[in-house]
Amino acid sequence: MGKNNNFNLHSRRDFLAGAGALAGLSVLASLPGAGFAEQLGIKPAGLTVKQVIDAALSETETLPKSVDKLIIGNPDQEVTGIVTTTFPTIDVINKAIKAGANMIISHEGAFYMHDDQPAYLKESDVCKYKTDLLTKNNIAIWRFHDSWHAHKPDGIVYGNLVSLGWAKYYNPAKPRMITLPQPMTVAAIIALCKKKINAPQVRLIGELNKPCKTIYFAPGAVLSAEQIPDIQKEKPDLILSGESREWETCQRVRDGLAMGLNTKLVILGHDVSEEAGMDYAAAWLAPKVKGVKVTYIAAGTPFQYV
């Protein structure tokens, strides 16, 4: 809302004297000079779930088809706090409750499928428990997947680059491709990932001591139908992948190495490969929703390594 330079303190008092009703005080609370309203004990209305969603989408073009949606919750609900995460697990939900947040912005779905809540899960004890937990605590979950990837730069890829210290190597013409100024060995890149993006363990196809200068980012679950043509075109030294079905890109990389090609593969895990992007989302969103605390909570890998 723009400033009204003619609405000075004197005119505010005149307004109050003439209004004399709660309706008038409500109008005043919405006017510039919120501090004056606060002196009267009037709390200005906060942001709603819908307003937060609109703010998050303000820099992204409208997508004709998207999985992004309000999975659960009321769009008109006032937001007390926001949590960003990759997966809205029960553990993340409980942490959001403790943090006083009633809106979760999740990169992935809440109910174990890409399209959320398929019919066969309606009788699931876990789905019922999770839904009841969210409903009881008035928590809304909005999925921020396709739009965050469509953002320029891709929020997930760029968040990883920020965490790894590689943001300055981002090339908008080839957003998945990173060219390092000096080669790093596969071992050094893995060590960096373990330190900066909390990768507890990775899987590797290739040799640890081989140098890499060009890196292809495939966080999350980039389809092999996209990855394999990109490998052929770009011939990267290394693919940093979230997850990959073992009969597709994995076998292409193995066969390529057997015939003397150079592309190697490091699999980080789906959660691990996208967490930095949702950490970045919290910092990116905070200035757009001033007055509402935005907190990043990591879902973390579900695996133990034994």
Q: How many domains, as an integer? A: 3
Helix content: 25-40%
Q: Terminal Cα separation, in Å?
A: 57 Å
Q: Based on CA inertia axes, which overall geometry fits?
A: globular
Briefly, what is this?
Helix content is 38%, strand content 15%.
Question: What does it look like?
Answer:
38% of the residues lie in helices and 15% in strands. The chain folds into 3 domains: 9-39, no CATH class; 49-150, 3-Layer(aba) Sandwich (Udp-n-acetylmuramoylalanyl-d-glutamate--2,6- Diaminopimelate Ligase, Chain: A, domain 1); 166-270, NIF3 (NGG1p interacting factor 3)-like (Udp-n-acetylmuramoylalanyl-d-glutamate--2,6- Diaminopimelate Ligase, Chain: A, domain 1, 3-Layer(aba) Sandwich). It is built from 12 helices and 10 strands. The model is unreliable at 1-43 (pLDDT under 50). Strand 7 (211-218), helix 10 and strand 8 form a beta-alpha-beta unit. The strands form 2 sheets. Strands 1-4-3-2-10 form a 5-stranded mixed β-sheet. It has a 5-stranded mixed β-sheet with strand order 5-7-8-9-6. Helix 1 (9-19) packs antiparallel against helix 2. It has helices at 9-19, 22-29, 34-39, 49-56, 90-98, 125-136, 146-150, 155-164, 186-196, 224-234, 249-258, 270-285, and strands spanning 70-72, 82-85, 103-106, 140-143, 177-185, 203-205, 211-218, 238-241, 264-267, 294-296. The protein is α/β, with parallel strands linked by helices.
